[in-house]
Design brief:
alpha/beta; Rossmann fold; 20 strands; 557 residues
Length: 557
Amino acid sequence: MTGKPILKVRNLSVDFPMRRAVLHAVKDISFDLMPGETLCVVGESGSGKSVTARAILQLVAKPGSITQGEIVLAGGEDDVDIVKLGSSGPAIRQIRGRRIAMIFQEPMTSLSPVHTIGHQIVETILLHEQVSKDEARKRAIALLDRVRIPNPEQALDRYSFEFSGGMRQRAMIAMALSCNPEVLIADEPTTALDVTTQAEILSLIKELQRDRGMAVLFITHDMGVVAQIADRVMVMFRGEKVEEANVFDLFANPQKAYTKALLGSVLKLETPAPRPPRPAAEVPVAAIDNLALHFPLNPGFMGKPVTYLKAIDGISLTINEGETVGVVGESGSGKTTLGRTLLRVYTPTGGTVNYRRGDGTLVDIASLRKSGLQSLYGEVRMIFQDPHSSLNPRMTVYQIISEPLRTNTRMSEAQMRDRVEELLTRVGLPADGADRYPHAFSGGQRQRISIARAIAVRPRLIVADEPTSALDVSLRHQVLDLMRDLQTEFGLSYLFISHDISVIRYFCDRVAVMKSGKIVEIGDVAQICERPVHDYTKTLISAVPRPDPRLRADAPA
C-alpha cells in the first residue's frame, strides 16, 4: 500500500435536480485508494456513500450527474480521468467490469432472473477478453469453485432464484472477479446476510484481495465490519467527507463530533439496556408447544413418496407478559416462519399456540377459525423488516395507522384522527405528518410509522421481524429504546426476530437459537451471548464482528 494510488478522486460533486431545488448528493469529495488497500466508507443513509461509488463507474441514475471533479484511474499506458469518458461508449465499458468491478447490495435485483448464473459470468468474460466460449465456461466454473459454491459445474446452469442469499452474493463476487479487476467496489455486500454467512463473505473478499492484489472500496454502515477489514476509513455525512483516518486511529481517537456520535451508537448496542426486574411468578401470554409447519416439496405423483421441508420442526417456547424473547439463527433457520405461523399467516401442520387473551381466556391460535382471527389481530400485531415495502405508498400516514382502528374498534373519524396524532407524537414524529405519504419520511421515520400502526389498537403481543436491520446504526438504538419505552408503558410482550446479535444482546430478556426449524438452545440473554453451550450457538456468537480493531490478528501490539 505504498507508492502511487490506483484511484484518485478529487473534488467530486454529484447533483440531482429536483422540481424546485437541487439535491447535492456528493459535495467536493476527495480521497485516494492505494493498490491492495481496503478503504471503508461509512455514514448513515443519505450520506452519499453509494452515489460516490456509482459515480466512480459512471452509473449515477438519471437525472443525477457529476457536476465537477476528477476520478483518475492509474495504470496502463496513461492515467484515465473517468469523468471525461462519460456514462456510455466503448471507453467506459472497457473499464467497467474489466478494471473496476462492483458488488451490489442486493444480488437478487442485480442478477438477471431469466438467465443462468453461468450465462451471466460467461457473457462478462466474453465482453472483455478474446477467448472462446468453452474457455470462458471453464473459467466461470473455476470462479464458482474459487468462491466456494458447491458443485460448480451444476451451479453454473442454475438461476439466481435457486440460490440462497449467501450463494447469490458469492455468484456476484465470482462475476465481479471474472476479469481480474484492479479495483473492487463492494456496496453493502453483507447487509442482508446472517452473521455466519457474512463472516464467510468477508473472509472470501479478504482472501481474494490478498491473492490478486486488488484495491477494495467497501461501503457499509456496520462498524463491526469496518473494524474487522478496513485499512483506512472515510466517514461521510450529508454528502460531505467528515473525517478520514487509519482504522486504529479512528476508533481510538475520533476527531469529529459526528464520528464520535456514530461510534457511540455502536458501543451503546454492545451493552445490554437496563431492564426492570422480572416478576417472581411469570404469567405466559403465549405458550407454543410442539409447533410444526411442513411444506411439501413434490406432489407425490406416480407412487413417489411426498417429501417435505420441515420449516418448523417441533418448537416449544413460552412468551411471558412484559417479556422480550429473541429468536436468532442463520437465514433459512425458520425464524420468520415461526413469527408468521404464530400470527397464522401460515397454518401449522401440528402443535398448539395457546394465547391468553386480555380477559384471561385461552385460545389456541393454531386451530382458530378464520372468523376468530380478526378479533385476535386486535391483540397480536406485527412489525415487519422493511417499512418501505410494508407501508402502502398510496395511503397517507393517517390512513395507514387508522386502518387497524377502523377494523378493530368503533371509533368515530374524529376520534381516530386524535388517536393517530397522539400515536405519531408518542413515536417521536410530528402530528401534522399524518396527511403525508410514506415516501416523504426517512427509513427510520417509516419504521416509527410501522410501530405506531402496530400499537394503535393497544396489543398485548407484538411479533417484530428484523425491525432494525434496514436502519443505520445511529437509528437502531433509538428505535429499540422507543420499543422498550412502549413496552414499559403498555405492558407489551415481544417475539423479537433478528440475526443481529448486538441488537439481541441490547434488547431481549431471553433468547432462542434456531437451526433447521428447531430450537437448539434457549436461555437468558447474558448466558446465550457470553456463555453459549451448544456448538452452533458458539459458532454464531464467534462470527459476530466486534467494533474494535484491536481484536484483529494484524492489530499493532
